[in-house]
Amino acid sequence: MKYVTKQAEPAMFAEWKAKANEEWQPSYEALQNPEKRVLHTALLIEQGSVCCYCGRTISLADSHIEHFRPQESHEDLALDYRNLHASCIRETNPGTPLHCGHAKGSGFDEKRIISPLGDGCERRFIYSSRDGAIYPTDKADEAAGYMISLLKLDVSFLNERRAEVLKNVYDDEFLVSASEEELAQLARAFRAPDEAGRLTNFGHVLSRYAEQLLNHPV
User: CA-to-CA distance for 34 and 13, rounded, in angstroms?
Assistant: First the structure.
Protein backbone atom coordinates (compact mmCIF):
# COMPACT_ATOMS: atom_id res chain seq x y z
CA MET A 1 0.00 0.00 0.00
CA LYS A 2 1.42 3.39 -1.04
CA TYR A 3 0.67 6.45 1.08
CA VAL A 4 -0.80 9.35 -0.91
CA THR A 5 -0.86 12.98 0.18
CA LYS A 6 -3.89 14.59 -1.43
CA GLN A 7 -3.54 17.99 -3.10
CA ALA A 8 -6.21 20.39 -4.33
CA GLU A 9 -8.28 19.06 -7.22
CA PRO A 10 -7.39 20.51 -10.66
CA ALA A 11 -9.23 23.72 -11.47
CA MET A 12 -10.57 22.45 -14.80
CA PHE A 13 -12.15 19.44 -13.09
CA ALA A 14 -13.69 21.61 -10.36
CA GLU A 15 -15.02 24.09 -12.93
CA TRP A 16 -16.59 21.27 -14.98
CA LYS A 17 -18.43 19.97 -11.90
CA ALA A 18 -19.54 23.50 -11.07
CA LYS A 19 -21.48 23.69 -14.34
CA ALA A 20 -24.23 21.58 -12.75
CA ASN A 21 -27.71 22.97 -13.29
CA GLU A 22 -31.35 21.86 -13.37
CA GLU A 23 -30.90 20.32 -16.81
CA TRP A 24 -27.48 18.74 -16.37
CA GLN A 25 -25.70 17.02 -13.49
CA PRO A 26 -22.05 15.95 -13.73
CA SER A 27 -21.33 12.23 -13.54
CA TYR A 28 -18.24 10.11 -13.99
CA GLU A 29 -19.76 8.59 -17.14
CA ALA A 30 -20.08 12.09 -18.59
CA LEU A 31 -16.48 13.00 -17.80
CA GLN A 32 -14.52 13.28 -21.06
CA ASN A 33 -11.31 14.89 -22.31
CA PRO A 34 -9.85 17.38 -21.79
CA GLU A 35 -11.22 17.37 -18.22
CA LYS A 36 -10.65 13.63 -17.74
CA ARG A 37 -7.07 13.78 -18.98
CA VAL A 38 -6.37 16.78 -16.76
CA LEU A 39 -7.76 14.87 -13.79
CA HIS A 40 -5.75 11.75 -14.60
CA THR A 41 -2.56 13.79 -15.01
CA ALA A 42 -3.13 15.58 -11.70
CA LEU A 43 -3.50 12.24 -9.91
CA LEU A 44 -0.26 10.97 -11.43
CA ILE A 45 1.61 14.13 -10.42
CA GLU A 46 0.16 13.93 -6.92
CA GLN A 47 1.36 10.32 -6.57
CA GLY A 48 4.80 10.86 -8.06
CA SER A 49 3.86 8.69 -11.06
CA VAL A 50 3.50 5.47 -9.07
CA CYS A 51 0.44 3.29 -8.42
CA CYS A 52 -1.51 4.18 -5.30
CA TYR A 53 -1.57 0.52 -4.25
CA CYS A 54 1.55 -1.39 -5.38
CA GLY A 55 3.82 1.62 -5.92
CA ARG A 56 5.22 0.65 -9.31
CA THR A 57 5.91 3.31 -11.93
CA ILE A 58 2.92 4.27 -14.08
CA SER A 59 1.96 6.81 -16.74
CA LEU A 60 -1.15 7.97 -18.56
CA ALA A 61 -0.68 5.14 -21.05
CA ASP A 62 -0.65 2.29 -18.53
CA SER A 63 -2.87 3.44 -15.66
CA HIS A 64 -6.49 4.27 -14.94
CA ILE A 65 -8.45 6.59 -12.67
CA GLU A 66 -9.31 4.54 -9.62
CA HIS A 67 -12.28 4.99 -7.30
CA PHE A 68 -11.08 3.82 -3.89
CA ARG A 69 -14.65 3.44 -2.68
CA PRO A 70 -16.38 1.80 -5.67
CA GLN A 71 -18.87 3.73 -7.75
CA GLU A 72 -21.36 0.86 -7.56
CA SER A 73 -21.81 1.30 -3.82
CA HIS A 74 -20.69 4.92 -3.37
CA GLU A 75 -22.20 6.82 -6.27
CA ASP A 76 -22.04 10.03 -4.22
CA LEU A 77 -18.22 9.78 -4.23
CA ALA A 78 -17.81 9.15 -7.97
CA LEU A 79 -16.49 12.70 -8.55
CA ASP A 80 -15.07 13.31 -5.08
CA TYR A 81 -11.40 14.10 -5.64
CA ARG A 82 -10.35 12.55 -2.33
CA ASN A 83 -11.81 9.24 -3.51
CA LEU A 84 -9.89 9.31 -6.79
CA HIS A 85 -6.40 7.92 -7.40
CA ALA A 86 -4.27 6.60 -10.25
CA SER A 87 -3.82 2.82 -10.29
CA CYS A 88 -1.76 0.60 -12.56
CA ILE A 89 -3.14 -1.32 -15.56
CA ARG A 90 -5.14 0.62 -18.13
CA GLU A 91 -6.74 -2.13 -20.17
CA THR A 92 -7.64 -5.59 -18.89
CA ASN A 93 -7.06 -8.62 -21.08
CA PRO A 94 -8.78 -12.01 -20.69
CA GLY A 95 -6.59 -14.45 -18.78
CA THR A 96 -4.22 -11.81 -17.45
CA PRO A 97 -3.89 -11.89 -13.64
CA LEU A 98 -5.29 -8.64 -12.25
CA HIS A 99 -4.10 -6.69 -9.26
CA CYS A 100 -4.56 -3.30 -7.59
CA GLY A 101 -7.60 -1.29 -8.73
CA HIS A 102 -8.85 -3.70 -11.37
CA ALA A 103 -8.59 -6.64 -8.95
CA LYS A 104 -10.57 -4.75 -6.30
CA GLY A 105 -13.53 -4.16 -8.57
CA SER A 106 -16.66 -3.49 -6.57
CA GLY A 107 -15.59 -5.62 -3.61
CA PHE A 108 -15.25 -3.53 -0.49
CA ASP A 109 -15.64 -4.15 3.23
CA GLU A 110 -15.73 -0.73 4.91
CA LYS A 111 -14.85 -2.28 8.27
CA ARG A 112 -11.58 -3.78 7.00
CA ILE A 113 -10.20 -1.27 4.53
CA ILE A 114 -6.89 0.58 4.63
CA SER A 115 -6.89 3.75 2.55
CA PRO A 116 -3.86 5.12 0.68
CA LEU A 117 -4.71 8.36 2.50
CA GLY A 118 -4.31 6.73 5.90
CA ASP A 119 -1.34 8.00 7.86
CA GLY A 120 1.00 5.07 8.51
CA CYS A 121 -0.65 2.79 5.96
CA GLU A 122 2.71 1.80 4.44
CA ARG A 123 4.03 0.57 7.77
CA ARG A 124 1.25 -1.97 8.11
CA PHE A 125 3.00 -4.13 5.50
CA ILE A 126 6.41 -5.81 5.27
CA TYR A 127 8.26 -7.45 2.39
CA SER A 128 10.57 -10.39 1.78
CA SER A 129 13.70 -9.68 -0.26
CA ARG A 130 13.96 -13.40 -1.08
CA ASP A 131 10.81 -13.57 -3.18
CA GLY A 132 9.21 -10.10 -2.94
CA ALA A 133 6.25 -11.40 -0.96
CA ILE A 134 4.11 -8.96 1.04
CA TYR A 135 2.74 -9.64 4.55
CA PRO A 136 0.94 -7.74 7.29
CA THR A 137 3.49 -6.25 9.68
CA ASP A 138 1.33 -7.51 12.52
CA LYS A 139 -0.03 -11.01 11.89
CA ALA A 140 -3.13 -10.01 13.84
CA ASP A 141 -3.83 -7.06 11.51
CA GLU A 142 -6.89 -8.45 9.74
CA ALA A 143 -7.34 -5.31 7.62
CA ALA A 144 -3.81 -5.58 6.19
CA GLY A 145 -4.40 -9.20 5.24
CA TYR A 146 -7.75 -8.25 3.73
CA MET A 147 -6.20 -5.51 1.56
CA ILE A 148 -3.46 -7.83 0.30
CA SER A 149 -6.18 -10.29 -0.75
CA LEU A 150 -8.60 -7.66 -2.10
CA LEU A 151 -5.97 -5.93 -4.25
CA LYS A 152 -4.10 -9.15 -5.12
CA LEU A 153 -0.87 -7.50 -3.97
CA ASP A 154 0.65 -10.96 -3.59
CA VAL A 155 0.38 -12.07 -7.25
CA SER A 156 3.53 -13.51 -8.80
CA PHE A 157 3.85 -10.53 -11.16
CA LEU A 158 4.26 -8.08 -8.28
CA ASN A 159 6.28 -10.45 -6.08
CA GLU A 160 8.84 -10.96 -8.83
CA ARG A 161 9.23 -7.26 -9.53
CA ARG A 162 9.53 -6.36 -5.86
CA ALA A 163 12.15 -9.09 -5.39
CA GLU A 164 14.14 -7.66 -8.30
CA VAL A 165 14.26 -4.09 -7.00
CA LEU A 166 14.98 -5.24 -3.42
CA LYS A 167 17.88 -7.43 -4.50
CA ASN A 168 19.32 -4.62 -6.64
CA VAL A 169 19.62 -2.40 -3.55
CA TYR A 170 19.95 -4.81 -0.65
CA ASP A 171 22.45 -7.34 -1.97
CA ASP A 172 24.43 -9.57 0.39
CA GLU A 173 27.56 -7.39 0.23
CA PHE A 174 25.65 -4.28 1.25
CA LEU A 175 23.77 -6.02 4.04
CA VAL A 176 27.00 -7.23 5.65
CA SER A 177 28.38 -3.71 6.00
CA ALA A 178 25.28 -1.48 6.14
CA SER A 179 25.15 0.86 9.12
CA GLU A 180 22.02 2.08 10.84
CA GLU A 181 22.72 5.56 9.47
CA GLU A 182 22.92 4.25 5.90
CA LEU A 183 19.67 2.33 6.30
CA ALA A 184 17.93 5.38 7.76
CA GLN A 185 19.14 7.47 4.82
CA LEU A 186 17.77 4.92 2.36
CA ALA A 187 14.44 4.83 4.15
CA ARG A 188 14.16 8.60 3.67
CA ALA A 189 15.65 8.76 0.18
CA PHE A 190 13.33 6.25 -1.45
CA ARG A 191 10.28 8.22 -0.30
CA ALA A 192 11.61 11.47 -1.78
CA PRO A 193 10.69 12.46 -5.36
CA ASP A 194 13.31 13.38 -7.95
CA GLU A 195 13.62 16.86 -9.51
CA ALA A 196 10.73 16.06 -11.87
CA GLY A 197 8.51 15.03 -8.96
CA ARG A 198 8.66 11.32 -9.77
CA LEU A 199 9.06 8.66 -7.09
CA THR A 200 11.23 5.57 -7.44
CA ASN A 201 9.67 2.43 -8.84
CA PHE A 202 8.49 0.51 -5.72
CA GLY A 203 10.23 3.20 -3.66
CA HIS A 204 8.01 2.77 -0.63
CA VAL A 205 8.84 -0.96 -0.64
CA LEU A 206 12.56 -0.14 -0.63
CA SER A 207 11.98 2.30 2.23
CA ARG A 208 9.99 -0.21 4.22
CA TYR A 209 12.69 -2.84 3.82
CA ALA A 210 15.30 -0.46 5.22
CA GLU A 211 12.98 0.16 8.17
CA GLN A 212 12.57 -3.58 8.61
CA LEU A 213 16.34 -3.99 8.78
CA LEU A 214 16.58 -1.22 11.35
CA ASN A 215 14.01 -2.97 13.53
CA HIS A 216 15.40 -6.46 12.91
CA PRO A 217 19.08 -6.19 11.86
CA VAL A 218 20.41 -9.08 9.75
Answer: 9
